[in-house]
Write a structure and sequence with these properties.
This protein is mainly alpha-helical. It has one domain (about 10-80). The N and C termini lie far apart (about 45 Å). The chain contains three helices and no strands. The chain has helices spanning about 10-20, 25-30, 35-80.
């Protein structure tokens, strides 16, 4: 269940963010720590990009499922007409 005022996108972003733990290549390449503003912003942006990708995939799968259901219903109608 989503928290009040939380969108599915927010939920997916939170899941993505927790999946990477404290990983952040920023420190290796810039010398900035994980709590720097740049690192925090980068992690948040990455999490929402992941959430957007999850939502796009969910929409694609939902559309595929709706099409499969439509085809099944059409086959039933055709069978009933025989």
């Amino acid at each position: 269940m989503l928290a009040e005022n939380m969108s599915l996108r927010d939920h997916f972003a939170g899941l993505a963010l927790t999946s990477i733990g404290t990983w952040m290549p920023l420190e290796k390449y810039t010398g900035e720590g994980l709590s720097s503003d740049k690192a925090l912003k980068s992690r948040a942006e990455w999490a929402y990009r992941q959430a957007d990708a999850m939502l796009a995939e969910k929409e694609r799968r939902d559309a595929d499922e709706r099409e499969a259901e439509r085809r099944a219903e059409q086959r039933i109608v055709e069978w009933l007409r025989e």
